[in-house]
Amino acid sequence: MKKQPIGVFDSGLGGLTILKALRRKLPHEDLIYFGDTANVPYGSKSKAAVTKFSLAIARFLQAQGVKLIVVACNTASAQALPELRRQMAVPVMGVIEPGAQKAVASTQNGRIAVLGTEGTVRSQAYPKAILKRSPKARVVQQACPLFVPLAEESWGKKPAAELIAREYLKPVQKSGADTVILGCTHYPLLKPVISRVLGKGITLVDSADTLAEAAQTFLAQYHQLETSGKGRVQLYASDDPARFKHLAEKLLTEKLGAVRLKKLDL
Length: 266
Ligand code: DGL
What we know:
By secondary structure, the chain is an alpha/beta fold. The protein is built from 11 helices and 10 strands.
């Protein structure tokens, strides 16, 4: 079991921020990443559609013999996690719980803002996870759908990104939150502009490191942690793998191996 890979998926490129953290924390593990480029964005789709895509990807990863599936997408974690856990034979971890845990640990004034896709905001998954840990916390949510294409196009440094961030972040600033969850795996790619607009004294939280730690603890607990050799990464995309590879290399600022095309059996 130890030698089996970990499967990771997202609607597109955003989950690469999670893949990066997993590689740092678990350098000996083989990782299989699936970017659902044929169906991105998930954020504006229905729960039924997101669940259908997530299940198809998870079945594919499971068929590759993974020992753990990491849902590196907040929208899919918020909407499809219970169904994934019900239908998969391997364990499935999402990004909502680690993000909520980190935010609760970091806030000083008990006010937490959540930035996410429309689907993540609608699901109320973050407020539920936060209030379970800290019943007195005050949570505001803001959907930021335009952040996904900005991140995918690497437009974080353009004036348009700052204008859009100013608009989206107004209610967050008004709320007095001292901690802001980047509740979409694409958003860490826009961290500099979000942090500039929010100003000093605000902690930005993303789930990547907390999730990687949780994955390590989980695998160690079940004696499935690979502790030797250099882990390999295999990448799949459901559409236009060449474009995915080009954008992913730009985002990660590193050369990646081949990206294979895998159409989903929906
Ligand atoms: N990166 C995904 C998330 O974390 C969703 C982006 C999208 O497909 O809308 O929610």
